[in-house]
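anyone seen this seq b4? input:
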Amino acid sequence: MRRVLAPVVAPVVVGAAALAVITLRWSALHWGATTEETRERLPGDEILRDPGLVATRAITIEAPPEEVWRWVVQMGADRGGFYSYDRLENLAGCRLHSADTVVDDWQHLAVGDLVRLHPQVALTVAAVDPGRSFVLHAAPAMPGDPAAAPYDFTWSFVLRRHPHRATRLITRERFAYLHRWSPLFVEPVAVASSLMSQKMLRGIRDRAERRGTAGVGTVGIRTVGIRTAAPEP
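predicted toks r here
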């Protein structure tokens, strides 16, 4: 009986395992996003015409876009951190601390500015629409640089007003493969990015939704706390 069933059961098990992997991968790449959000064109999509991997993630935040923007715009290893798993990121030498306050000195980004992921790794601001979106692009590597990543990369943040004063925050990562073997490097990166990005989105949500914290009025935008010490250079 076992010999009879084996040829039938084995393909079913393999197929089920493959389906589970595909489903988990899709969920990791599209955490929190609607089908429409995964398919629509977002700022930054025009930079990489033919990406090998695209990850779109999203979260609804019960705070107005101008409040959420203040947390998003100050991200960076040498700024407000990434509101994710600091200890894990610091094991890789990122030397960051996720801020729990909005800092005025970190509220400005312009095209060409650098947003650091690590003291030695930075992305360039490719586009910015204050209060609505900004796009980061991997800084071009020098030809022949052995430390250059085997992919080009963009990272977009889009804020949209949602009903009842809420905000829909959408992020998109796009990887363009530069070598045939690039997927072998990108796929593990995408898995790690999924875990960190989910925590980051929840971290932004929790900070923006926080109530009862000290605030200072600023041109129609509520500031959630002000750090008294200047940020480290």
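The radius of gyration is 20 Å. The first helix runs from residue 2 to 29. kinda curious what u guys think
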